[in-house]
Amino acid sequence: MLNQFSRTQLVFGKGAMEVLKGASVAVFGIGGVGGYTVEALARSGVGRIDIIDDDKICLTNINRQLLATRDTVGKYKVDVAEERIHAINPDCDVRKYKTFYMPDTKDDFDFTEYDYIVDAIDTVKGKLELVINAKDAGVPIICSMGAGNKVDAAAFEVDDIYNTSVCPLARVMRYECRKRGIKKLKVVYSKEKPIRPIEDMSISCRKHCICPPDTARKCTERRDIPGSTAFVPSVVGLIIAGEVIKDLTNFDRENRE
Fold this sequence. Notes:
single chain; 257 residues; alpha/beta; Rossmann fold; 7 helices; 32% helix
């Protein structure tokens, strides 16, 4: 029967669509990268999507985040994402958590419920906790490395963390994963050398913070304020979604049903 996922079924086949309908994916962080990942998962027919982010949409998110518009500034990202997912697929089971994932919040989640985990958060401590918990639960995970301060969207690639180079975040993750005995980790990263943001205090969030009221983690508390574009985080998010979909369905170009 013709439906909103028919064109996807022409590529992946009926069996794969049934797998996606029964799949449960958790996306940690739904900003510039994670927002596009969630969008693609919803449009691919994933049956359950857990969205985890404690942040509210800020005016400065509009340049790169799918969920950010003038109408959504000040709203929780997970609330906006839930509404958007249901506008795409009313049957999708959306579970939202207004939570900043760190070691002290890990017990809020049962990782064994998931078929796949997406790490789109920007703190090393949180990323490592996600990786460890995913590995302990035997659930595949894919991690986004640095997308800020970059302009070459075509440079991003999928690889194991131990094959990465140049990316500063990947370098730290390699070191920390090796210390913890993590043998492999699928990541999306770029060898493009990050651009140093222009130091313009007239438009700096550090001097002119406009975070919505009651924002838990304001820009003024961040160690660094990265620059960003509309076209780099979106590409990273879509690459991640593509890997999740292909892995979940064991996609084989030559053997589709």
